[in-house]
From TrEMBL:
Domain of life from the UniProt record: Bacteria
Domain Histidine phosphotransferase ChpT C-terminal intervals: 81-202
UniProt protein name: Histidine phosphotransferase family protein
Cross-referenced Pfam families: HPTransfase
Annotated coiled-coil segments of the chain: none
Length: 213
C-alpha cells in the first residue's frame, strides 16, 4: 500500500467530517427548535440537548486531534493519562459499553498513543449493541505493547480495516473508513513494529508491538 501522505490526510479529513456531522448537525437543529419554542419546559429540554451535543462534539474533536493530528506536541513521550481521558470521554456517551483499563506505564511514545487511540476507536465501533472494551498498554525495554479487546454480541468489524492494518489493502480500495487503520500501519512500519487482529463472532482482539522510543 503506497498511498501518499496527501491522499491519506485527505481521507482522514473526510473521516473526521463524517464523524462530526451528527453532533454538529444536532447543535444546529437544537438551535432552530429553541428559536421557535415558547414553552419553558420544552426550552429547558432543548438546552439539555444542546449541552449534550456540544459535549459530544468537544470530546470527539479532542480525541481526533491526538488520534489523527499533532496534539500532544512533538516530544517522544505522551502521558497515557491523556489518552485515557480521551477514550473515557467517548465511551461516556455510550452507556452500553463497559470500559476496563490495564496500564502499567505512565507514558508511551507518541506513535504508540496514536495506535492505542485508533485501536480503541475500532473497538468501540465493533460494539454497536454494547459490550466490554478492555485496553492494556505497557512500555518496557524500549518497546510498546498494546492490546485492545472488544467483546459483545455480533461484533461489527470491516475486514478491509483489518487488511489496512496489515498493509494488504490495495491502494485503490482505501477509503475514509479504512484510512485510520492505514495511518497506524504506516506508523508501525516506520517503527519496524507489527499490528495484528483476531476476529471472532463475539470478540475482536487488536494487538501491536512497536519497538523504539
Amino acid at each position: 500500500m503506497t498511498t501518499s501522505s496527501l491522499e491519506l490526510a485527505s481521507l482522514l479529513c473526510s473521516r473526521l467530517c463524517h464523524d462530526m456531522l451528527s453532533p454538529v448537525g444536532a447543535l444546529s437543529n437544537g438551535l432552530e427548535l429553541l428559536a421557535d419554542e415558547k414553552d419553558p419546559e420544552m426550552r429547558q429540554r432543548c438546552f439539555e440537548l444542546l449541552d449534550q451535543s456540544a459535549r459530544i462534539s468537544t470530546d470527539k474533536l479532542k480525541f481526533f486531534r491526538l488520534a489523527f493530528g499533532a496534539a500532544g506536541g512533538f516530544g517522544e513521550m505522551v502521558p497515557v493519562s491523556e489518552a485515557k481521558v480521551l477514550v473515557d470521554g467517548l465511551v461516556a456517551n455510550n452507556a452500553r459499553i463497559v470500559l476496563n483499563w490495564a496500564l502499567s506505564s505512565d507514558s508511551l511514545p507518541k506513535p504508540a498513543i496514536k495506535v492505542l487511540l485508533n485501536f480503541a476507536l475500532f473497538g468501540m465501533e465493533a460494539l454497536p449493541r454494547g459490550g466490554t472494551l478492555d485496553i492494556a498498554a505497557e512500555f518496557r525495554d524500549e518497546t510498546s505493547e498494546i492490546v485492545v479487546r472488544a467483546a459483545g454480541q455480533r461484533i461489527a468489524f470491516d475486514r478491509d480495516i483489518g487488511r489496512a492494518l496489515e498493509g494488504t489493502l490495495p491502494e485503490g480500495e482505501l477509503s475514509s473508513r479504512t484510512a485510520p487503520a492505514a495511518m497506524i500501519h504506516k506508523l508501525a512500519s516506520e517503527q519496524e513494529g507489527k499490528l495484528q487482529y483476531v476476529l471472532a463472532e463475539d470478540a475482536l482482539v487488536l494487538g501491536a508491538v512497536l519497538p523504539g522510543a
